[in-house]
Automatic annotation (TrEMBL):
It holds the Pfam family GGDEF. This is Diguanylate cyclase (GGDEF)-like protein. Gene3D superfamilies: 3.30.70.270, EAL domain. Residues 157-290 form the GGDEF domain. It comes from Sphingobium boeckii. PANTHER family: BIOFILM ARCHITECTURE MAINTENANCE PROTEIN MBAA, DIGUANYLATE CYCLASE DGCP.
């Protein structure tokens, strides 16, 4: 009967498509009672693992794990088991099912081995591909992040991150093609490897950007030392086919601290430092204060975008007064912003953000439209066309990106305001960026009868070539020359020179920053045409500006 039972068990096991065996404890030892052919295949040791002839139960603690299950009352169990060394071998899910035989001193169970080797190898290969850069074989951005996380969680998390960006790399792709660009990336990667010390890790984060994890043994100076090595190694020209290309790199650095355990944030800090390095031309280390300021600018940009889209900006109007007649000849329209929570944001804070983000283009169009709408409302209120102009500022971004003549023509048609009632003010910096385009744009604005003023004259390059080539009507003398002019003979000399120059070129002049009656009278005596400043009035809202104009001109 026992033989028949054993035969039945064997037949049952042989019918199973997976490795299966019955295992029990006899005389305190775990033994295999019977197994199928699939299981017997796995019983054989791997030929390439040290020629170990140990039985399967004696390899990597399998018997101990099974015995641990049999010593419990559990009906089933499962664990993962690796047969072989750490690099190679087989991987199994081991499932256990207890056999109730009525012999408590002889516990037994069914053992099933599910081979997951191929699956895990495929997963490992896919993961390796996901974490590696296909061009250089280095870790990619995801792989670098994983390296940083492992290092941060380690016993000695003293390290820094260097972000390296190749200067003018895009020109290589543009001039000699992407194949040469790839060759340059590979060459640079090989060189950067030689800049590393033991324990440092290199990754390609994407495009022409590399990352280095620098182990800090002697403090942050180690990171600067590696950055210096990077510069020295890249100093020698790279030979691509028949060309020699000199490669320069900008380097930003951030040091890991216990307060900032987010490695993604650490990389962002290094990239912020890299942005500064591109400006300064030297390796930059992340400074929290500068980063907070940049984050505040980004927050300000987000709020400003909402304000532009939601009509949260308004214009203020500062009077322009004829110094001879003392009457208002126009107003300078100035953008103002009060946030939803009631904060007044200074133009010196939000205008640079608008220019950097490109929001200055819709803001400029809005300002032009609002100024025209205000003039039309004032004309309607008085019943006739008022002898006043509206000055609106133009930035270099508007000249470069927008169709300013088209914008002006549109508001002229929409509000029925003649073009000669607009003065468009621009700075020298707006001209210097692209003088040829500036000439074309200003000529098209002049064709619409608009007046053109150069703002802040004397504070920039003050090239006489621009004054000769551009169709300008007005020079605005910067407040820095007007303030304190009466006690500074050098300032008086500069103002006299600007007034003489404007007169010789047939231009009018406007003096900014007039704050006393003495300044007003002196400038009038020197021949300045128009004055602007707090002596007359600060910026006013639409109603206040209209009332000021009426009271002063009557």
């Amino acid at each position: 009967m026992a033989a028949n039972a054993a035969d039945s068990r064997q037949q049952l096991l042989d019918a199973l498509p997976i490795a299966a065996a019955t295992v029990g404890i006899e005389d305190g030892v775990v033994v295999i009672e019977c197994s199928n052919q699939v299981f017997k295949h796995f019983e054989k040791p791997l030929a390439y693992v040290d020629n170990d002839q140990a039985l399967i139960l004696d390899r990597n603690g399998l018997a101990r794990l099974i015995e641990g299950f049999l010593r419990t009352d559990a009906a089933s169990g499962e664990f993962f088991w690796h047969d072989g060394d750490a690099i190679s071998g087989r991987h199994f899910n081991v499932n256990l099912t207890r056999i109730h035989s009525g012999q408590p001193d002889h516990p037994r169970c069914m053992v099933f081995l599910l081979d997951r080797t191929a699956e895990l190898q495929t997963e490992t290969n896919l993961r390796r591909e996901m974490l590696s850069d296909s061009l250089t074989g280095l870790p990619n951005r995801a792989g670098f992040t994983e390296i940083l996380e492992e290092t941060a969680a380690g016993d000695d998390p003293h390290f820094a991150v260097l972000i390296i960006d190749l200067v003018r790399f895009s020109r290589v792709n543009e001039c000699i093609g992407p194949m040469a660009g790839d060759e340059l990336i590979i060459t640079v990667a090989r060189r950067l490897v030689h800049a590393l010390r033991g324990g440092d890790r290199l990754a390609r984060l994407g495009g022409d950007e590399f990352g280095i994890l620098v182990r800090l043994v002697d403090g942050p100076g180690d990171a600067l030392h590696v950055a210096q090595r990077v510069g020295e190694i890249l100093a020698a020209p790279c030979r691509l086919s028949e060309l020699e290309i000199c490669v320069e790199a900008s380097v930003g650095c951030a040091v890991f601290t216990s307060e900032s355990d987010d490695v993604e944030e650490l990389v962002r800090h290094a990239q912020f430092a890299l942005k500064r390095a591109k400006v300064t031309g030297r390796t930059e280390i992340y400074q929290p204060i500068a980063f907070r300021k940049a984050r505040q600018r980004f927050t300000l940009e987000t709020e400003l975008r909402r304000a532009v889209e939601g009509g949260g900006l308004h214009l203020a109007f500062q009077p322009l007064v004829d110094l001879e007649t003392d009457q208002v000849t126009g107003f300078e329209a100035l953008a103002r912003w009060k946030t939803e929570d009631g904060r007044d944001i200074s133009p010196t804070d939000f205008i640079p953000v608008a220019e950097e983000s490109g929001l200055i283009v819709p803001i400029g169009r809005w300002a032009l439209d609002s100024a025209a709408r205000t003039l039309a409302a004032w004309d309607k209120r008085t019943g006739h066309t008022l002898p006043v102009k509206m000055s609106v500022n133009l930035s270099a971004i508007q000249l470069a990106r927008d169709d300013m003549a088209g914008a002006l023509s549109q508001v002229i048609d929409l509000h029925g305001i003649a073009g000669n009632r607009f003065t468009l003010e621009l700075t020298e910096s707006a001209i210097i960026a692209d003088p040829e385009r500036a000439v074309r744009v200003l000529d098209s604005l002049k064709a619409l009868d608009a007046s053109l003023a150069m703002d802040d004259f004397g504070t920039g390059y003050s090239s006489l070539t621009y004054l000769q080539r551009l169709p300008l009507d007005i020079l605005k003398i910067d407040r820095s020359f007007i303030t304190g002019m009466l006690t500074d003979k050098n300032k008086i000399a500069i103002v006299r020179a600007v007034l003489s120059l404007a007169d010789a070129l047939g231009m009018k002049t406007t003096a900014e920053g007039i704050e006393t009656v003495e300044l007003s009278r002196t400038l009038a005596a020197l021949g300045c045409a128009v004055g602007q400043g707090f002596f007359y009035s600060g910026p006013l809202d639409e109603t206040e500006a209209f009332d000021y104009m009426v009271s002063r001109n009557n």
